[in-house]
Amino acid sequence: MFQSLREYVQSVFQRDPAARTMFEVLTTYPGVHALALHRVAHRFWRWRLKWLARWLSLLARWLTGIEIHPAAKIGKRFFIDHGMGVVIGETAEIGDDCTLYHGVTLGGTSWQKEKRHPTLANNVVVGAGAKILGPVHIGDNARIGSNSVVVKSVPPGATVVGIPGRVVTPTPTGAKMLQRQAMAKKIGFDAYGLTQQGQDPIAHAIDCMLDHMHLVDQKMKILSSALKQAGIKVNLELPELDVETLENGNPTTGDKQGPPEGNS
Q1: Region Disordered: what ranges (predicted)?
Q2: N or C end of the chain: smaller count of CB under 10 Å?
Q3: Predicted TM-score (pTM) above 0.90
Q4: Is residue 17 located within the same domain as residue 90?
Q5: Are residues 92 and 198 in the same domain?
């Protein structure tokens, strides 16, 4: 028992940098208190002492602001940070190492006595104010962004944002990231879509444009080199972008380009 308690508190330390001591976590964290009372209430529910289980869950709600139905199934090392306004429905199922923040709802979309609440797999993080509704399945290691509304199942490892929730494309790393940053710098664009945060559709579209421009740039260099080897002199270098005046300048002199010269 004490080993399990120590393991749980250590998991809290890993997810909350404000936690300082085991005593502080056990005595001042409402999420910890709500979970402890739920463990007891859930056992009463399984023993068919359902009124007593519901009364205990009501007491937990009054003390912590967190409402967990005693029939909900919760795995190991579950942590509710801050906690106020969290609601977990009767048929909800939560795996190991999941984290919920304040204002989260795991709600139902049916009045039928059936599976009507979400199932969270292992290591799922649900941001503040998010709503996950219906008998959907949230895969392992998924991330649900703050204030998102999720009504469809989420694959493992995905990040979901928005209303309704949508899976966003992961931010690229390594060579792909450097390539986009170089192209954005070349055209004088501050690529806000290249942050570590989830991308919105506009940022994703801009990233795709940067990728396409990079490929066009490469093709132009190859074509220019081939024409030069064939003895055809033509300047195919892309002009630099004058950010201040939003006009194209000459690649070498910075002068404004006039109309293209005709063939003599």
Answers
A1: 243-264
A2: C
A3: no
A4: yes
A5: no
